[in-house]
Give the backbone structure.
Amino acid sequence: MSATVLHQIQKSDLAVRSLVESDLPQVMELECLGYSHPWPESLFRDCFKPQYRLWALIRGDDMVGYAVVNYMVDEAHLLNVCVHPALRGQGAGRYLLRYAVAESIRDGMVQMILEVRESNEAAAALYASEGFEEIGRRPDYYPDAAGREDARVMVYRFT
Ligand SMILES: CC(C)(COP(=O)(O)OP(=O)(O)OC[C@H]1O[C@@H](n2cnc3c(N)ncnc32)[C@H](O)[C@@H]1OP(=O)(O)O)[C@@H](O)C(=O)NCCC(=O)NCCS
């Protein structure tokens, strides 16, 4: 993404479309900026299957974020959500999350579940403010610089 687009977001600038495999080079750039332990590209490729929904967050001509959701029976599992670091804190993550939730409801899911690193306070605050509640922990779920880190498990029941 060029430096010229890294100014403040107006929500009306944002749109969501389906992610396609040709987006993956850009996804991998964002993924490596977004995470200490990024997914390999092969993991994204494995998600292009009917029971997955992959969303690209678009601003102008740029892809500025993405989300990956897996449908299991009637439960949506949010596997990944990421926004370009330069655009964080301006509502883009909330916009994308709301889109993924709305699509999950439309597709007949009854709840959305996710794991989030215990240290990821920004993401956990976003989820809590959108109706997710913590229902447990998965000990040592994630690798981190010091060894392993717990995951909070959060769920949003749609009804
Ligand atoms: C998590 C992420 C997607 C949020 O995207 P974002 O565009 O920054 O989020 P928003 O601007 O929509 O913020 C929504 C809410 O999140 C919380 N939040 C966002 N940034 C925060 C921060 N730095 N500290 C604390 N809370 C924060 C706030 O509750 C905020 O609501 P508010 O603006 O009304 O206070 C983004 O930080 C990101 O891509 N992180 C790296 C990847 C990642 O960790 N993904 C989640 C994996 S579980």
Notes: DSSP finds four helices and seven strands in the chain. The two ends are 39 Å apart (CA to CA). The chain has a mean pLDDT of 94. The chain has one domain: 14-157.
